[in-house]
Specification:
- This protein has 2 domains: 37 residues; 86 residues.
- A 4-stranded antiparallel β-sheet has the order 1-2-6-5, with no helix packed on it.
- The chain is α+β, with helices and mostly antiparallel strands.
- The protein contains 1 helix and 7 strands; from the N terminus they run αβββββββ.
- The radius of gyration is 47 Å and the shape is rod-shaped.
Length: 172
């Protein structure tokens, strides 16, 4: 059978490539291959530059060493106040000062007292040093504390004492 007039067939004489039908569709442009290689090389160089830049940025984010943690220490309180004596106002109806002895291994750095009819409120505590009181070392383990009340109308029979060997007493 012979081909019709509208059919176009091309047959290659080279047996290694097979039939040469529509070969122009598969041809590559030699310039386009070079452009692709150049674009791929530029993309690779750009990725390398960005990687080095990102490393430089993160390398400058240094965090200084810090210490944190929890621990334990022995907290031993001063023994109960002993030899307590009070100073009264002229009429003998109000207490205006208190003296007592604390026993412990170190001299107190700060002492606060409250003299109230019940549990003391935060505002009822008086700092002994700020009220012109004093702390005197009697022996290496006994310390006499004197404390004057800022307001001479203190009434109460409950003496509360807070003392520390380092720092300040904080009542909250």
């Amino acid at each position: 059978m012979s081909p019709s007039k509208d059919t176009c067939v091309s047959v290659s004489k080279r047996p290694t490539r097979g039939h040469n039908v529509f070969m122009h569709l598969g041809r590559r442009n030699k310039g386009a291959g070079r452009k692709r290689k150049t674009a791929a090389l530029l993309a690779l160089v750009l990725a390398g530059i960005m990687g080095v830049g990102a490393y430089a940025f993160t390398a400058s984010n240094e965090i200084k060493a810090r210490y944190a943690g929890a621990g334990t220490a022995t907290v031993s309180g001063y023994k109960n106040a002993k030899d307590v004596s009070y100073t009264w106002n002229e009429s003998g109806t109000k207490m205006t000062a208190v003296n007592f002895v604390l026993e412990g291994t170190q001299i107190p750095s700060d002492v606060k007292v409250a003299l109230t009819p019940g549990v003391p409120k935060t505002s009822e505590w008086v700092d002994c040093e700020e009220s012109l009181g004093k702390i005197v070392e009697l022996t290496p383990t006994t310390f006499e504390v004197s404390c004057k009340f800022e307001v001479p109308n203190v009434e109460g029979d409950n003496l509360a004492v807070a003392a520390v060997s380092e720092g300040k007493v904080v009542i909250e």
